[in-house]
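Appendix B: a complete holo record

For completeness, this appendix reproduces one full record from the ligand-bound portion of the collection. The bound molecule is zinc ion. The inputs are the chain sequence and the ligand SMILES; the output is the full three-dimensional arrangement of the complex, encoded as structure tokens. No fields have been trimmed.
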Amino acid sequence: MKRFNGIARCVTACAVLTVLWGATPAGVVTANEMPATDVVAAAAAHNIGVDSGKRVPTSAATGSIAPDVTVSVAATGSAATTPTAPAAAPILPTKLAADAKQLLFGKRGKSLTLKLTPTPASAETSTVVWKSSNKTVATVSGTGKVTARGWGQCTVSATVGDVSVKVPVTIAKKWVAVTWDDGPGKPTKKLLTQLRKRKVHCTFFVVGSMAKSKTKQKLLKQMKKDGHEIANHTWNHNGSAGALMAGLKKTDTVIKKAIGKKSTLMRPPGGAINSVTKRCGKAIIIWTVDPKDWRDRNANTVYKRVVTGTRSGSIVLLHDIHPTSVTGGIRAIDALAKKGYTFVTVTQLLGSPKKNKIYHSGAKTVRTAKLK
Ligand SMILES: [Zn+2]
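The structure of the chain with zinc ion bound, as generated:
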């Protein structure tokens, strides 16, 4: 038997034991509905010796847990102590977070109310100062109600005392998720520089074997820093039923090593879906626009196909292992920006993508989305 069965169980058991201890004759523990492990953990937490291995009743105390389980408790330490009351909440919050890290609104006039965590005490609610960095994009009321006023981006902030929180807000007319597969490759560094200049956020479906070196791990870190999303495209571009799960797992490790967490999104190589893909445990992201940039290595062709194929809500497929794809893709991004597109990551486009669900595109008209 394990003496300690997790902190949470121990805490629960302690509370139950405290009650039972007080209600029964001194030195006797009855724990009719408690699992044996909980009694042992609770007794141990109260410095009471437990003969858990032999389960032999001792003279000090015995407890019958279930008809077939008996645990003996020897009262060698002090019995249960009175639980101490939780510490009083601090008067001012020491940290503050809004309920959304970024807001995306579709239409002018739409609004959402931001909530703060921890919620300021009622006496402080009136002292929260809400501000918008650009009132022509969005305004914010004294209660945290953010209203879309025009296309663009701004920051909404809330301040209580010395503590403040900032939330980026995007009011998008049309939106698109540009994705880059099979890398990181040779042109990836240049691509990141170009995207950074434009403040454009993309999603990179990386191949694990391409991302493991020190140099590539650096690139992954840079992607995260720049606001891009990193997702899983298998280990060596093998999505077959026999290789998929192991490849995803190995690539998760490489991604996690670089950015601290694995991706909840995957893209099957070639978009091919088999019985294993359908239950791989990640959201399955296909695409709307395929400019065949891997086959036709011509920047102008790539540019034209992306621009003519993109609609609001599209997911665009490109490959950051071909210089022509990077050149054509950047030109296409500039042209789409002029048409009023906002560039978002796949998760931003889809809201909360569900695991094992197949996606080809996001909402055509931008809906109100709160992003955790
Ligand atoms: Zn691929």
